[in-house]
Amino acid sequence: FKERCKAKIDADDDRRDLDITDGKEINAEKMIRFIRMNELRLVTEYNPVTAIGLLHSSVQFHLLLITDKRSPEHPERMRRFREAAELFQGKILFVLVDNNVKGNERVVSFFKLKKSQLPALAIFHTPDEERDVLPLDEVSIEHVQDFCNVFLQRKQKKRRERGKTTFVHLSPFHS
Fold first, then answer.
1. What is the per-residue DSSP string for the chain?
2. How far from 77 is each of 42, 96, 112, 120, 143, CA to CA, in Å?
3. Which residues is 134 bridged to in the sheet?
4. pLDDT tens for residues 106-130?
5. Cβ atoms within 10 A of the Cβ of 98, count?
6. pLDDT digits (tens, 9 = 90+) for 18-67
7. Can you give the pLDDT at residue 97?
8. Do residues 29 and 90 make contact, with C-beta atoms less than 8 angstroms apart?
């Protein structure tokens, strides 16, 4: 007799299943990880309601695509942005910010962007508010992936450097 556990989440017109049928034990940690990775959409559109959830998310890195939803290029940008989001699922929240929405002007100004610099990617680390911006001519999976990887590597390097303690040995003897 094998135990069977099944959990299902529907988001982004996509169904995600956690199906344990191989006899391995399911524990609370595995279930929580599955839910956290799949509770948000691949790309969440920024608005006053989602802003609260984004800021309280356990995922500390947010990548914003600040763009004009009315642009003829918007559907293709979003397709590529969603594809890139799959690569970083559970590590970075992908957020769409429509620069034509009046309330989103504050987001654009927070990243010190001008309308002439859009579309742009903006990455943000919530605990220390470190951020970086990349104005784009085109949104490609490679641009998004490179931008995210560089930022994540920089954060990882800073974390390692903070963890190192430098010892200076002062000796009363000189050779």
1. ----EEEEEEETTEEEEEEE-SSPPP-HHHHHHHHHHHSS-SEEEP-HHHHHHHHT-S--EEEEEEE-TTSTTHHHHHHHHHHHHHHTTTTEEEEEEETTSGGGHHHHHHTT--GGG-SEEEEEETTTTEEEEEE-SS--HHHHHHHHHHHHHHHHHHHHHHH--------S---
2. 14, 10, 22, 11, 12
3. 121
4. 999 999 999 999 999 999 999 999 9
5. 19
6. 666 555 666 777 766 666 555 557 899 998 888 888 888 888 999 999 99
7. 97
8. no
**β-bridge mates for residue 11, sequence order:** 14
Q: How far apart are CA 147 and CA 140, in angstroms?
A: 11
Examine the pLDDT at 174 and tell me if it is beyond 50.
no
Give yes or no for a contact between 99 and 118, defined as CB atoms under 8 angstroms apart.
Answer: yes
Tokens standing for 4? Answer: 């069977």
Average pLDDT score over the chain:
81
Tokens of 103: 């309330």
Question: How much is the pTM?
Answer: 0.72
Which of left, alpha, beta for 45 (phi over 0: left; psi -120 to 50: alpha)?
beta
Domain architecture of the chain: domains with CATH = 1-39 (no CATH), 41-160 (3.40.30.10)
